[in-house]
Design goal:
The complex is a heterodimer of chains A (about 290) and B (about 400). Helices cover about 75% and strands about 0% of the residues of chain A. Chain A has about 290 residues and is mainly alpha-helical. Chain B folds into two domains: about 70-180 and about 315-380, Response regulator (Rossmann fold, 3-Layer(aba) Sandwich); about 185-295, 3-Layer(aba) Sandwich (Rossmann fold), CATH 3.40.50. Chain B is built from 13 helices and 14 strands. In chain B, strands 7-6-8-9-10-13-14 form a seven-stranded mixed beta sheet, sandwiched between helices. A five-stranded parallel beta sheet of chain B has the order 2-1-3-4-5. The N and C termini of chain B lie far apart (about 85 Å). Classes of the chains: A mainly alpha (about 290), B alpha/beta (about 400).
Chain lengths: ~290, ~400
């Protein structure tokens, strides 16, 4: 009976893999400390769920989720074009708050705090994914393609430019590169993958509400990316496994479950503090977190 | 490409120290990865030992005791902003376990924070690792709906003490609840109002799923009884200016007004503005009005009559107070009845999810929150109390 449980955990890992890797693209490679990532994840989840419930086939709702989240990523980059470093982080956190509050208050569209129940498992043309095992296979496929694409991007000339922008934006501009355009593109791609992972999340869990896409989730994905190491895809992949498995293993500790829930948040916080104090580049990171 | 060449030159100049640094970094990278992997293996080993160890202990115990232990899962918010509901329900369940006298039952608690994702995590763990055949929970309707398909697929019974969404009625054969659906409160309210010789009623309702659902049932049932709904006006959740709606209602000249609200702010505003507009009519309200904010309006809300799910019999109040030194919390009585219903089936010999499900459909007893008898959808019929606001406190009507 342990296999269904393992499949469930692997599915969660797959979803967070895409999310973490997409965050690492903007945070690690491009140096945009984007705390609004969780909102892009939420936009993807809501878009896909609402479209699918209203009769749009999964394939389209899935892709539209990515495109819309990507568009919002672009908007965020557009609106915060002049901000850098901590100021950008604050503005993007503000973006996360705004999206949360919209999800909560646009009750006619999002049903507000009641959330959206009954999101069905995907149906891809003729192939209906009913059990978790098939979902895992489908997810592994999407995951593989996403990581492959992001890996391609970061190792391309474009990826090198991102690294240069992170390390010395003014220098890059002196060389005649348009860093604004770089940011727009990065945020679009990062948002796109966050959006499709949101879609995969919504169709797996079957229920979403605004609280799913708020601070605690943001802390989780930041922990993953920072633990794994910024600008390291391998690091993010390793850290996703470590963090998700660790948080599930905590269930088995002989402690009252009322303590384990908050305990998990404490562990994330401790991991973040230890990393920042002793190993600012994370497990497999290539550059220090500033 | 001049800048690139420059870089390469630099590389060559610094090659030795850089390489050394790189090697060092590589080493520490490897070290960190190895450390993490070892920790993970140790932890999984610990858990594995824990799981199999328990199984061995379980076998050992089985020889001593005659009966097999039945594992019951509990899912609810034990941390987070809805934690007070979770703990109230947990206390209700524990009290019922104590009273049932069952010794072959083990309850495994999982915290879900009322979140869909956490509920799905928890139910996967409860079913696949602990092998529970029945789960008490979830607490919030959304989380219940997220977990229900998984319970249904694995033939595990879920029984909720607090999820009132009408959607749960159709959630599946294995999904029960000991609290009536929101849809039923409308019917109960219509009867209550009609019995007080009121034939002209106006409704002021919150424009959301809860409000609309309640209003539709109330209107339909009231008209079936022979009454007349002269006006039904909606407001947005949390809005504090309801004069437009109330003026329209005043023009319809009803004998009474029924306020359906989940928002204390709007409810208080409605009560105040009814007085300001000089409307001298009877005021009724849904259970959302039963809160300290409304009670604090005192003279403004005086005489307000509300319907509410039952908080439990007096005997239950005493028992609960003796055990915990607390008044029964919201849904404690429903939690008590949920477990009592399960205990009945277990006493009759039901063990697997399917056996418990079948037995639950045949159960009928008088619980602390009212009559417990599940209909074919796993719902109970309305067990409501009526309260009236008198001198700033809600007293049984």
């Amino acid at each position: 009976m342990i296999f269904p449980y393992l499949i469930h955990i692997l599915i969660l890992i797959g979803i967070y893999l895409i999310l973490a890797v997409s965050l690492n693209l903007s945070l690690g490679y491009a140096g945009l400390l984007s705390l609004g990532h969780v909102a892009l994840f939420g936009i993807g989840a809501y878009t896909s769920a609402l479209l699918n419930i209203n009769g749009v086939p999964f394939v389209f709702s899935f892709l539209l989720a990515g495109l819309l989240a990507g568009f919002f990523g672009f908007l965020l980059a557009f609106a915060t074009g002049k901000l850098k470093g901590d100021y950008y982080a604050l503005a993007s956190l503000g973006f996360a708050f705004v999206v949360y509050s919209l999800l909560l208050n646009l009750t006619e569209i999002t049903r507000g705090p009641l959330g959206i129940p009954g999101i069905s498992k995907p149906q891809i043309f003729g192939w209906a994914i009913k059990d978790n095992f098939s979902y895992l296979i489908f997810l592994a496929l999407v995951c593989f393609v996403s990581i492959f694409l992001i890996n391609k991007i970061v190792n391309s000339g474009f990826g090198k430019l991102l690294g240069a922008m992170r390390d010395d934006e003014t220098g890059l501009r002196i060389l005649g590169k348009d860093t604004k355009k770089l940011k727009y593109k990065t945020m679009f791609v990062s948002g796109f993958f966050a959006g499709i992972s949101g879609s995969l999340f919504a169709h797996y869990i079957g229920f979403i509400d605004p609280n799913t896409f708020y601070i605690s989730e943001l802390v989780l994905i930041l922990t993953i990316v920072i633990l794994g190491g910024i600008a390291s895809l391998k690091g993010s992949i390793t850290a996703t496994f470590v963090v998700i498995v660790l948080s599930e293993l905590m269930r088995f500790l002989p402690l009252p479950s009322a303590i384990i829930g908050p305990g998990r948040q404490i562990v994330y916080a401790i991991v973040l503090i230890i990393i920042l104090m002793f190993r600012p580049r994370g497990l497999l990171g290539r550059i220090d977190l500033e | 490409m001049p800048e690139r060449e420059d870089n390469e030159d630099e590389d060559e100049e610094e090659e030795t120290p850089r390489e050394a640094r790189k090697r060092k970094q590589q080493k520490s990278n490897n070290f960190a990865t190895v450390a993490v992997v070892i920790i993970l293996i140790l932890l999984s080993g610990y858990v594995y030992m824990g799981v199999t160890g328990n199984a061995i202990f379980g076998l050992g115990e089985k020889k001593g005791t005659v009966q097999e232990t039945i594992k019951i899962g509990f899912m609810g918010p034990l941390s987070g902003d809805a934690a007070s509901y979770g703990h109230g329900i947990k206390r209700g369940v524990e009290l019922a376990l104590k009273d049932s006298g069952l010794t072959n039952v083990e309850i495994i608690y999982e915290d879900t924070k009322c979140e869909g994702k956490e509920a799905v995590n928890a139910i996967n763990k409860l079913i696949n690792i602990d092998g529970v055949s029945v789960i008490i929970g979830e607490v919030c309707s959304g989380a219940t709906l997220a977990a229900a398909p998984i319970a249904e697929e694995n033939q595990v019974v879920m029984i909720s003490a607090s999820s009132t969404s009408p959607k749960i009625t159709d959630a599946g054969d294995y999904i029960f609840r000991a609290i009536p659906s929101d849809a039923l409160q409308g019917r109960f309210a219509a009867n209550l109002v009609y019995k007080m010789n009121i034939t002209n009623l106006s409704i002021l309702y919150g424009n959301e799923e809860y409000g609309i659902g309640f209003k539709d049932v109330l209107k339909e049932s009231f008209e079936e009884l022979g009454g007349n709904v002269t006006a039904a006006e909606s407001f947005e959740r949390g809005s504090s200016d309801l004069r437009t709606q109330l003026t329209k209602i005043r023009q319809a000249k009803p004998q009474a007004i029924f306020i359906i609200s989940n928002s204390p702010d709007s409810a208080v505003a409605a009560l105040k503005q009814i007085k300001q507009l000089g409307m001298k009519i009877k005021v009724f309200g849904s259970e959302g009005l039963k809160g300290p904010e409304v009670a604090a309006t005192k003279a403004t809300g005086e005489g307000l009559i509300i319907t509410s799910v039952s908080a439990g019999t007096e005997e239950f109040f005493e028992k609960y107070y003796r055990e915990y030194g607390l008044q029964p919390e919201p849904f404690s009585s429903q939690a008590y009845d949920s477990f009592t219903a399960l205990a009945e089936t277990i006493k009759k010999g039901a063990k697997t999810g399917t056996e418990i499900k079948n037995a639950l459909y045949g159960i009928s007893f008088s619980g602390v929150s009212g009559e417990i008898e599940f209909d074919s959808d796993g719902d109970v019929s309305g067990n409501y109390d009526v309260y009236q606001l008198k001198n700033g406190t809600f007293v049984l009507f």
